[in-house]
Amino acid sequence: MAKKNNKIWTNDGSKDFEELLISLSEKADTIKLATAFFSDTKLINQWNKADKNINLLVSLRPPTNYYSLNSIYNKEKVSVQFLGKDFHSKFFIFYIDNQPFACIIGSSNFTAGGIYNNIETNVLLDDQKYLKEVDREFSKLWGNSHKLQPSDLEAFKIIFDQFQRKAEKEKEKYEEFERELLSGRSTKSRKVRTCRQAKEDYKFWIAVNEIRDIVSELSKEEYPDIPVYLVIDHFWHWVKVIWTGNRIQLRMGPNKALKIKKLFKEYCDWDKSDRSYTQEMAKNSETIFSFLLSENRIENLTEDDAQKIFSNLHSGAMRTKRFDAAKKFATKNSIEQIRTSFKYLLYSNEELELRIHNLYVNPEYKLKEFSLSGIQDLIGWVMPEKYPIRNEKANDAVEILGYNYSKV
């Protein structure tokens, strides 16, 4: 095979990869297959009928299929050996007169998924230097493996049948999960290029989640009925206004998690000795935001509701007091537009970054008088179990705690 044929082969659900295997096998008298998982016998049977010598090396563990192995392991000119759970190689070598002339290395197992259905990436090699190295690797693995015995198969059948029963149940659960996960979500090729502010929000979310994981256990002990994101939101106020007001700015160093956890305990003690604003936040989230903007109520949102929501946002409270901003928000946007945009922001299955981008710049969703801070605020207030509240106070506190999320 000419060297120009070295290339990437991507299995996209077509028969291209199968055709490659068939094309190479037609020139070969011996085929050596190293595959972590084996289940598809179609090509093995074709090659066996064509009088090819086949060496098949597998991992004897599910999802390698007992029934597939049982149907081919005793065929003439088919030799099957196995390794244990650590074996994860996938490469297929094609020989003529004991000399390798082509090899495929990649992600495909010798399964229906690996050959026909999955998204796989494989490399076709014909360079003699690499072919000799791969041949030596196969010989080493083959020499360290075990010849498959009928008694091995009988013992494996019990394991495989148990795995299969469990896998069928798990498959149903995963398919349901995947349907919900991807329903209504755009593929990358269809997405607009999101603005810097929306990208930054995603980085902020990741930084907050690291802090959340550090303080989560303590938060649940101190505030068992309040979502951790809501507790953290007032922790930002304490970090920025109270803690940094009388201490040197935090330098994290190697004991970052311990320092943050200690600071969070100080915050909890302060909060409970003061007005316990954290409890008030939880009440507002439940009785104002989550109630008025619940999925089954949002279509009935009124102008008064819209004003109430706006004026209770961190970003809207001061503007409402000084400039009557809540009323302007409710009058400059039709209630139908507010419902549509809020419903999209809160309940669309699009990635959050894209939803924020569209509320911020896309005329189809952009609301007058509704700032970027309001967009980032709102989703956390309505769904505090799922999303953090973001505003300038939160931005500053996260940076004070040593997280740089602004480089996007």
Would you give an account of this structure?
- By secondary structure, the chain is of the alpha+beta class.
- It folds into two domains: 3-155, Endonuclease, Chain A, CATH 3.30.870.10; 196-400, no CATH class.
- The protein has 17 helices and eight strands.
- Helix 10 runs antiparallel to helix 11 and helix 11 (303-312) crosses helix 13.
- The relative contact order is 0.09.
- Strand tally: 8
Determine the N-to-C terminus distance.
46 Å
Quote the beta fraction. 5-15%
Overall 3D shape: elongated
Tally of individual domains: 2
Individual helix count: 17
Measured as a percent range, the helix fraction is 55-70%
| Average residue pLDDT | 88
Order of helices and strands: EHEHEHEEEHEHEHHHHHHHHHHHH
In what order do the strands lie side by side in the largest sheet? 1-7-6-5-2-3-4-8
Tag the structure with descriptive keywords.
408 residues; alpha+beta; Endonuclease, Chain A; 2 domains; 57% helix
What does this entry show, briefly?
The chain is an alpha+beta fold. It has helices spanning 16-27, 42-49, 66-72, 112-117, 128-143, 150-182, 196-222, 228-246, 256-273, 277-292, 303-312, 314-323, 325-332, 335-347, 352-361, 372-382, 392-400, and strands at 7-11, 30-35, 53-59, 78-83, 90-96, 99-106, 120-125, 146-147.
